[in-house]
Design brief:
alpha+beta, eight-stranded mixed β-sheet, Herpes Virus-1, ph1033 like fold, 2 domains, two-stranded antiparallel ribbon
Length: 312
């Protein structure tokens, strides 16, 4: 049975046209880009799990296959939770070719969650003439253009075929939004911890926080937290004790902590998960100061337990 775009789209799905030098394939199974502000634009307009990117071949010789020029090539969905370096997502031979022919371009990429080939590859100006006319012009060059109106209606009737793409190691090993959502408790905990961080970042500009360092956090923090929560065993980075995602004792739940409290960044080099109790105890103090306190507190507990045993 033939599949058309309308079969996989939702009533309010958006489609964004992007020019490429070839179709989505195992040779290039990622959506690469050169302009950093495309990330910001997509975060504002593209809805993961609902919207689509549509590839059109360019009209010039940079699209190597003449049959791909000015034609609709591929449909895909992408994961915006993490930006990769393109060389992590494509085969080494493809990256070598890109550096030889187009050095400095397409350094960054999004992971393609799912992809489809456009059957028969129709001419772009025959299906989406309004948006195709804009794609190579300022300010759309290197960006994407939303497909609307009659262009969108014609697009929905195109025949497509599902692509089974080979995943590179960086994606196969990464925690993705899809895998997080497949584990409700893990997803909820990752979102909870990330929101705590984002709220702290937001509060760092308020009057009450003027004496604290200005704070920042990466946009893909949910995935970073999810990866930390999946460690086995899940241990507190301060005391070394076991943590669990949904503990009976709230003081033992994972809590976000900056390794260097004087550094406001929650990036991967300054971020760890610790018991809530340990985090409260450490506060703004250094790890060395916390461990000094922990040694004394542990000794007190041991002495108290020993005294209780003698009383028995």
């Amino acid at each position: 049975m033939a599949l058309v775009i309308a079969d996989i789209a939702k009533a309010d799905s958006r489609f964004f046209l992007k020019s490429e030098y070839g179709p989505l394939s195992d040779a290039w199974p990622a959506m690469s880009f050169s302009l950093p502000h495309l990330v910001t634009w997509l975060h504002r307009h593209y809805r993961p799990g609902q919207d689509f990117i549509l590839y059109t071949g360019t009209s010039g010789p940079e699209t190597r296959e003449p049959d791909h020029r000015s034609r609709l090539l591929s449909l895909l969905t992408i994961d915006l939770m993490k930006t990769y370096r393109t060389e992590q997502l494509i085969p080494p031979a493809s990256w070598k070719w890109a550096q030889e022919h187009y050095p400095g371009q397409w350094e960054y990429a999004f992971w393609v969650v799912e992809g489809w080939a456009i059957t028969n590859m129709p001419l772009s100006h025959a299906v989406v003439p309004d948006e195709y006319e804009k794609i190579g012009r300022y300010p759309h060059r290197g960006m994407v253009v939303e497909i609307t109106g009659e262009d969108r209606r014609r697009l929905l009737g195109l025949d497509i075929g599902h692509l089974h793409l080979q995943r590179q190691a960086a994606v196969a090993e990464a925690v993705t939004l899809t895998s997080l959502r497949g584990t409700p408790d893990l997803n909820a905990e990752a979102v909870r911890i990330a929101n705590l961080v984002f709220n702290r970042v937001k509060a760092s500009d308020t009057l009450q926080q003027q004496r604290a360092p200005e704070r920042s956090a990466p946009s893909d923090l949910v995935l970073s937290v999810g990866a930390l929560l999946m460690r086995t065993p899940l241990l507190c980075s301060l005391c070394g004790g076991v943590m669990s995602i949904v503990p009976m004792n709230r003081l033992l739940q994972p809590s976000p902590d900056r390794i260097d409290s004087k550094n406001g960044d929650y990036g991967p080099d300054n971020f760890q998960l610790v018991h809530l109790a340990c985090n409260l105890a450490k506060n703004q103090f250094t790890v060395a100061e916390f461990k000094e306190w922990l040694t004394l507190a542990s000794a007190s507990v041991v002495a108290e337990q020993g005294g209780s045993e003698r009383d028995d």
